[in-house]
Amino acid sequence: METTMVACTTTCKLTLVTAKTLSPKFSFNFPVNKQVRRNVATLKQASFSYLPLRVRASSQAASAATEATKVGANLIPSEMKAWVYGEYGGVDVLKFDENVSVPEVKEDQVLIKVVAAALNPVDAKRRQGKFKATDSPLPTVPGYDVAGVVVKVGSQVKEFKEGDEVYGDVNEKALDGPKQFGSLAEYTAVEEKLLALKPKNLDFVQAASLPLAIETAYEGLERTGFSAGKSILVLNGSGGVGSLVIQLAKQVFGASKVVATSGTRNLELLKILGADLAIDYTKENFEDLPEKFDVVYDAIGQCDKAVKVVKEGGAVVALTGAVTPPGFRFVVTSNGAVLKKLNPYLESGKVKPVIDPKGPFPFSQVAEAFSYIETNRASGKVVIHPIP
Q1: What Gene3D superfamilies does the annotation carry (predicted)?
Q2: Superfamily of the domain at 220-328
Q3: Would you say 146 and 186 are in contact if contact means Cβ atoms under 8 Å apart?
Q4: Which residues have a Cβ under 8 Å from the Cβ of 107 and sit 6 or more positions away?
Q5: pTM of the predicted model, to two decimals?
Q6: Is residue 214 within 8 Å of residue 279, measured between CB atoms?
Q7: Domain made up of 60-210+353-384: CATH architecture
Q8: Nearest to 112 by CA among 154, 84, 61, 52
Q9: Chain segment 264-294, per-residue pLDDT in tens
């Protein structure tokens, strides 16, 4: 089974910090030709949350959150706007529906007024019917990642109350019985145990980009036995999961060395994220490196090559593609406790969301956002915002 996950976008208004305040790591030690200047300019202007920028939520995001907090349990409508598909297939099966029933809240759930949601490759694979044997019944409202405001709580909910700003992955199991009503809707019902309070320094767009990808990155590192002093190679370090693996390995687990691969345009991004060495896969073969690694995190589907550069007794985690021993695959389990554990790293700025600069995509362009992530060209996550 495959659990590749990529995704989203944002509309945060950004104010560049002056060159004097940039992190010492943010340097351009390479030939400065016209293309490089264009790439650097793009990085400076993009709404990438990982850049050394001062980020503040857009007025649109703030007003959406304000409106959401006004929705009390007595004001929740019976129907909502949502994206739905009633059959498996390509992007064309997605339909916008203004008359979808608002999901009922079970005793261990909260109802969230969705402010932002994010897309992942698993969303596309599910829609294509690749997991139909274990899927929920059709029709389906897709969407795993969510950030929003609690507007109703179940009778057994203890941690959250109306008005709380939360984020999480709405599906405990990515492939085994995911919810029929996901996050690409005005409202979604989610178990308390899958959620955490939104980090105070992040806006809803940034928060929505994180849950599935950061939980996948963290669980994969834990399963490999990664720990302080170990080295790691991250394949597709600019993707939704890979960009977070780099940061978690360095900031949370204490990696001694992080090496990562990407295409030419994202090499500087890898360095900003904390990679000690950035490899351009279009020009170099990572399997030709003179060193071997304690862990290889394959987020692109090259396990057959990854196993050639892992130390004896080391581990290779593969998110997609064929698995070559000693590589292994896992299916991520959504867990609000993981988000709570990582919140201090997010609030301190040690770990940052990475959001693709094409977005965010408005709610009316969910189909276009799906088409984009299915090109496998996104850097970081693809986010949907605003949601009515």
Answers
A1: Medium-chain alcohol dehydrogenases, catalytic domain, NAD(P)-binding Rossmann-like Domain
A2: NAD(P)-binding Rossmann-like Domain (3.40.50.720)
A3: no
A4: 154, 155, 156, 157
A5: 0.85
A6: no
A7: Alpha-Beta Complex (3.90)
A8: 154
A9: 999 999 999 999 999 999 999 999 999 999 9
